[in-house]
Amino acid sequence: MFTSLRFRLPAFFLAGIALAGIVSTAVAVQLFQDHIRSQTLSELRRESVGLTKLYAQQAVQTSEEGGSAPAFVAKQLEEATGDRLFYVGVPIFPGQPSGLRQLPQSAVDWQKLEQGETISFEFTPPGEHRRLLAVAHPLPLQEGGPTFGALVVAKPKTDLTARWLTLLKLFGVAFGIGLVVAAGLAWYLSRRFARPLLALSRAADRVAGGRYDVEVPAVPGGGEVQHLAERFNQMAARLAEVEQQERNFLMSVSHELRTPLTAIRGHVEALREGVVDDPAAQLESLQVIAMETERLERLVGDVLDLAKLDARRFTVLHEEVDMERLVDQAYAAFGEDARRRDIDYRIEVRARPVIVTDGDRVLQVISNLLQNAFRWTPDGGRVELELAAENGAVSVAVADTGPGITPEEQERIFRPFWSRDGGGTGLGLAIARELAVALGGRIELQTSPGEGSRFELVLPAEEAAAPVRAPALPAAR
Fold it and tell me: What is the radius of gyration, based on Cα positions, of the chain?
């Protein structure tokens, strides 16, 4: 259960929300603490300034009138403001009670007070355990005169803590409600996201078991999951197609192998048993055997070539190749077939390049393209072979008047074992394209249904180097 995506997805979602909430709460509490401290210091500073002026005025008035120390009612002020009052410095009226708690000068920065600065600090009053946040304002009896002391207005830090603890409780309640809502949303979203992924997982299990007739339901809303479902359906369809192609290939190869083998076996048995005793008939049987053997050799060679190309273990030779002679050789190989089927078979040579490439493999590609053209061109049709060179490339084009190829089939015809009519091995065009790539070129296709096809082999025109003459040696004396 705990490894299931339906559990892990909402768990990670909630963990992320919880972490974000905790961090946000910590930051908010810290900012609130700083704000409360700053606000409290501002309030204490205003109170200390006002009370100090009031106390100084009363002290000066009392001193001028020759009276006793001013009746500074500290307890009433503390009850009214909620703050604690202290005095630090030299008593203005020695020996007379002032009503203020006395602090030693060491508890404050006395040097700054003497310079007329208002200071803020923290301290623990004598005999107490609570820390107080305080502001001290210097007390001169006359403006510009010496500082006798300072009136200290203080507030317990626990009052500040109580304020942000209240805020923290409110944050906790809001966070809990938000977490519950987020949990419900996460559960709903996880089920919505996990449902197509679970369907993909079940479909993948079926594909792994060799069953390709699966289809993942369409995922609404778009996005990566929909893209994955579409690609999975395409993959399953492609695997099913590949499996069908392999079956067709095995059936085609079995048929292609059985036909020449049956012919070879029949002629060999006839020759061995003496059924054919006429020398002319014997020679004809041997010719049939040779032709069928060549047919088998071509079939096995195609399969081996495709396997080497797929494994990237194919060796390409580099030699000087006269493309005109090569095209003439390929053209001549299909002349008899064209005559027998009354096909208008033409060749057009627009250039006579000599390039460095693998001549045998180029001839194989052209022969495969011609074989494909003759297969699909009806009797009385037309097949054209053209050689040209321009823009640094050599091209050999094969055009036919066959049925053409639909857009859906234009990529499939180059796949191994795929055949439009289920006949043949489906290797000719696949090998041709792989060989073209191995030679550094490509095969381009121009076709439309009902208007024939044009396959063009394009190779880089790497011209043969001019022969270098060796320097003449001096004659021997």
Answer: 50
